[in-house]
Amino acid sequence: MEFREGPNLLSMELERAEQIVIELWDEDVKAWQLYWVPIFRRFAHDLILDSEVSPGQIVLDIGTGTGIAAFEAARRAKPDGFVFGIDRLQSMLTAGKAEPESKRLRNMRFILMDSRQLLFPDRIFDVVVSNCGISPVGFQQTVAEVFRALRKGGTFVYSDWRLKDVPAHRVFGETFKQYRTGNPSRYLGLHRAALATLERFSNREMNLNRQLRELRMLGFEKMEVKFRNYRVELDGSDEYLDMRLKRAPLKQELAELSTERRKRLKSALKEELRQFVRGRRFLFDWKVIFVRAKKP
Question: Of 14, 83, 94, 150, most Cβ neighbours within 10 A?
């Protein structure tokens, strides 16, 4: 797979890359719940605070995953409000429905749905949120649908982050690339190409300035941007490595290395990540962007 520009070719490549990444996420539900949910729950808390969800409102959570932000919104919208959480991955929604909170909160529902084509009528929602759940590939279509589905005066709040803005992730990635195989299988090669394609597109074509322009063009007003830095604390570098290496793409990377090369890789990672170790703890900052806009 190549990242090629030209009429139709770019979108074709991007859609293929996105589909591959979605399939990888389908394998990552357990890792997501174990390592990533506790961190993203903090993002969701601030996201819902920014959205000012109140009792009686109808709320949509885009890219809900296992429902972190949806649960938070449902607690604030009850008793008469209702929350819909949508996602393109049935595996994530199934995991969300199995959460104890899903059984306690009766004012919410998970639906398998693509945010680029919302199956809701016009002007139905008071608030639409997304906790790092909007794909850069479908950003324009998604926000156009959000604008259509929001009521007059409705609020749209979403969060986003970039790999390059999280120092520990950046160091991990740079070190990993030095030790990964130079002869990947076709399966692994597709993973690499898909992830690289989406990262390049996101950084170049759908950066924050471009996103804000899209919002203005659609008619959103009163846009506010907040940058929050979250201090993440883990139980040493081993927990951080587990968090990263148990994701599907990296598990495949490790599987295609010899035993000796895997040992050298893990040793190099621990050495480079030593800068984030304080005593027995692993500490790093995670920068997240929050955007809030209103439909006039």
Answer: 83
